[in-house]
Amino acid sequence: QVQLQESGPGLVKPSQTLSLTCTVSGGSITTNYYYWSWTRHPPGKGLEWMGALAYSGSTYYSPSLKSRTYISRDTSKNQFTLQLSSMTPEDTAVYYCARGSAGVVAGLYEYDYWGQGTQVTVSS
Asked: For 8-56, how does the pLDDT look when each residue is reduced to its tens digit (9 = 90+)?
């Protein structure tokens, strides 16, 4: 059974960079043809897709966040990471990593496994 778990800081200061790690077990992040996504849920708003890492290593980003979002992976640890720079209070949200199919890069809801989510608060 595939399991995903987010880890990282719960509090980030404005202007700093958020770094989160998703650790995957029960399946390889290089297995055809899965896409590994980062999403977030701000309070009072809907779920927002941020970007994805394909099984091949290719990355895809939401146009609204592309300029300050970076997704990478460490295949030896079966992990992928999120870096979100220039944080503001509007970035306060619960952040999730999830497995999906190719349609997620087009905004389709095609996820089958999720992490439990981690609360990230941006405050000085």
From this structure: 999 999 999 999 999 999 999 999 999 999 999 999 999 999 999 999 9
Distance separating alpha carbons of residues 96 and 117, to the nearest angstrom: 4
pLDDT digits (tens, 9 = 90+) for 43-97: 999 999 999 999 999 999 999 999 999 999 999 999 999 999 999 999 999 999 9
What does the alpha-carbon distance between residue 41 and residue 45 come to, in Å, rounded to a whole number?
A: 7
In 10 A of CB 48, how many CB atoms?
Answer: 14
Count Cβ atoms below 10 Å from residue 87 Cβ, excluding itself: 19
* DSSP annotation of 64: T
Number of other residues whose CB lies within 10 A of the CB of residue 82: 23
Residue 107, Cβ neighbours under 10 Å: how many? 9
Place of tokens 């503001």: 88
